[in-house]
Amino acid sequence: MKIAGVVVLYHPEKENIIESINSYLDYIDVLYAIDNTEKSNEKHREVINNLKEIDKIEYIPNNKNLGIAKALNMGAKRAIEQGYKWLLTMDQDSKFKEGSFDKMLEFIKNNSENKIGIISPFHLTISNLSLNFKNEYEEVLTAMTSGNLLNLKAYQEVGPFLEDLFIDYVDVEYCLRLNKYGYKVIVVNSSILIHKLGNIREIRIPLWKTLYPTNHNPLRRYYITRNRFYVMELYKNEFPDFCKRDKIAFFKELATILLLENSKLTKLKYIIKGYMDFRQKKMGKIDE
Predict the structure, then answer these.
(1) pLDDT at residue 194 is higher than 70
(2) What stretch(es) of the chain map to CATH 3.90.550.10?
(3) Per the database record, which ranges form the Glycosyltransferase 2-like domain (predicted)?
(4) Where does the pLDDT of residue 1 fall: very low under 50, low under 70, confident under 90, or very high at 90 and above?
(5) Cα separation of 77 and 25, whole Å?
(6) What is the pLDDT of residues 110-123, one digit of tens each?
(7) Which of 39-53, 186-200, 222-236 is least confident?
(8) Average pLDDT over residues 99-104
(9) Bridge partners of 91?
């Protein structure tokens, strides 16, 4: 089975990126390292030089931030042109637990006749440490981008990632679109991906519960808000229950930001701007 991979880079750090790549490089034939870093410095050049020394890596500099969706589409287009059937999509700071990639390959082998769009690992974060699964795998509506095996036949049928989203909710929209076209999104729970989500931290509230604010910066809050409402508007008829849950999640996150996170007013300003730009149909990279 021919598998290509794409990892989207943005000011990568040498120690983290090499360790992450080594956790999956042996399982794929080629890795497109697509770099959205705007301005290079000595530290960045050192990382890139190290990546270029690895035979399987094809380094592709954009010399500016074109967004996650554009980079993923560049990788998918290249993989299709070179005859690959599956594309591994990776964040630069995610890594597979040893033996986990085999579990996804095994699932593909045993379910080759099913209409599968994405096979995802279980994303292990500080807020999601439970590994007590009832089922070895499960069908879901959405999965995060990192660690996914994307069926390139499905990609060619349903179309590319939405570049107008730029970053955030690119994966949510794409998974919903796959489901709309009848493709399944499968999480293989025995395949573990160690994933960094924002700057998440644990806050324990005595006699109540533990909360995990993500502490995304204000700019990310802009994209999350704008794109969340865009996706809800786009799929409100096909997936009403999902959209209802996500709207509730928005208000819960807003409360968490105002109660527990720093830079509250700045984040609130960007959240409001994100919602207003959604209403005014301003998409793509933010106009600051």
Answers:
(1) yes
(2) 3-194
(3) 6-112
(4) confident
(5) 20
(6) 987 679 999 999 99
(7) 186-200
(8) 95
(9) 8
The Cα 178–Cα 185 span in angstroms is 8
Residues contacting residue 179 through CB under 8 Å, at least 6 positions apart? 117, 141, 185, 238, 239
- H-run or E-run covering 242: helix 240-260
Residue 134's identity, in one-letter code, is K
Token pair listed for 111 = 């379910």
CA–CA separation, 178 and 175 (whole Å): 5
Instruction: Classify residue 120 as left (phi > 0), alpha (psi -120 to 50) or beta.
Output: beta
Burial 176-210 (b: 16+ CB within 10 A, else e): bbbbeeebbbbbbbbbbbbbbbeeeeeeeeeeeee
**Residue 263's closest CA among 211, 212, 213, 206?**
213
For residue 134, what are its two tokens?
Answer: 């009832």
Looking up tokens 């509230």 gives 205
Residue range 3-194, CATH number: 3.90.550.10
Query: Are 155 and 88 a contacting pair, CB within 8 Å?
Result: no
| N-terminal to C-terminal alpha carbon distance within the chain | 45
Q: What is the pLDDT of residues 22-71, one digit of tens each?
A: 999 999 999 999 999 998 899 999 999 999 999 999 999 999 999 999 99
For the cut 60, the answer to whether the pLDDT of residue 287 exceeds it is yes
